[in-house]
Write a structure and sequence with these properties.
With about 280 residues, this protein is α+β, with helices and mostly antiparallel strands. Helices cover about 45% and strands about 15% of the residues.
């Protein structure tokens, strides 16, 4: 019996015993409960599995539940998001991503993006939809409030926006890295029709995307470097860092920093003028 098997058995048992049947609206039983929490029969009924299956799991008898069974157990036991992830890790399964990815920024993250000024920053979901941004980012790229929601997507801007697509000095590398991220996201979110339609739009609307998408590169960059040819500030270089919020793991916080003194001066000049304030939007 492995350590993970022993821990899985103990974890399922303790989560079952901490639940109050009355809180779950379960019918009362004539026979008094000798142990706290739910009976194995009740967990089995809630999860849609046999009682024997629950018994074998709690006895550590070498079962490896499927991802569907793990999800059913997590719901039956009313596990928190952290506990759910722990259960999936114990069973060596991969949890399904949410069917409806975030299209708005959680208020704490939106405030954080604002607080990161004077560094340009944005919050995106897995398909590069912009969920929140600050004033400095609008100065560096574009006033996102002037764009329809369907165009508030970092990849769309890079590929199809008539001005932004010319910003990047090394556009091929930027597009290639973005496509490698999108392919990884596409495999992780197979039921995201919006992402699938977005990829189809890029494939038909941009020859470079179609060519590079066919190469099937997969990569997720946590940091990097970009050189921009800004119409108002000339050439400036930025480094970027990508952070994943623990409570919103399908979102990414992207922070840009000037890569050198000349780029810092250029960004300072850009942000010194009047312009749009920080914004939060749905993509």
């Amino acid at each position: 019996m492995t350590t993970h098997t022993v821990e899985l058995a103990a974890f399922l048992r303790t989560r079952r015993e901490r639940l109050d049947p009355d809180d779950l609206g379960l019918p009362s039983r004539r026979q008094a409960r000798r142990t706290p929490g739910l009976r194995r029969e009740e967990v089995a009924e809630l999860a849609g599995v046999s009682v024997d299956y629950i018994v074998r799991l709690e006895q550590g008898r070498g079962l490896r539940p499927s991802a569907e069974v793990v999800e059913a157990l997590a719901q039956a036991l009313r596990l928190s998001p952290v506990e759910r992830s722990y259960l999936f890790n114990l069973t060596r399964q991969r949890p399904r991503n949410p069917d409806k990815p975030a299209t708005t920024a959680p208020p704490p993250l939106a405030r954080l993006v604002d607080d990161l000024s004077p560094l340009p920053a944005m919050l995106v979901n897995h398909r590069y939809d912009l969920l929140a941004w600050n004033r400095e980012l609008t100065k560096l790229l574009v006033d996102f409030d002037t764009l329809p929601p369907s165009q508030r997507n970092a990849m769309w801007l890079c590929l199809l926006h008539p001005e932004i697509r010319e910003y990047y000095v090394d556009r091929e590398r930027v597009v290639r890295e973005g496509i490698a991220h999108l392919r990884a996201a596409w495999s992780a979110y197979p039921e995201d029709r919006v992402l699938t339609d977005l990829i189809a739009e890029f494939t038909t609307g941009d020859e470079d995307f179609a060519r590079l998408w066919a190469e099937r590169d997969i990569q997720v960059n946590g940091r990097g470097h970009k050189v921009l040819r800004h119409p108002g500030a000339g050439v400036l270089a930025v480094d970027f860092e990508v952070l994943t919020p623990l409570e919103d793991p399908d979102q990414r916080l992207v922070i840009f920093r000037p890569a050198d003194a000349e780029s810092q001066s250029a960004l300072d000049r850009l942000c010194a003028g009047s312009g749009p304030a920080s914004a939060e939007g749905a993509a």
